Amino acid sequence: MTRTNKKVLYSKETIEKRVQEIAQTLSDDYRGRDVVLICILKGAFIFLADLSRHMAIPHMIDFMRVASYGSGTVSSGKITVTKDIETDIEGKDVVIVEDIIDTGITLAFLKNKLQEKTPRSLKICALLDKKARREVEIDADYVGFSMDEGFVVGYGLDFDEKFRSLPDIYVIEG
Ligand code: IMP
Ligand code: MG
Question: CA nearest 40: which of 163, 103, 127?
Answer without folding.
Answer: 127
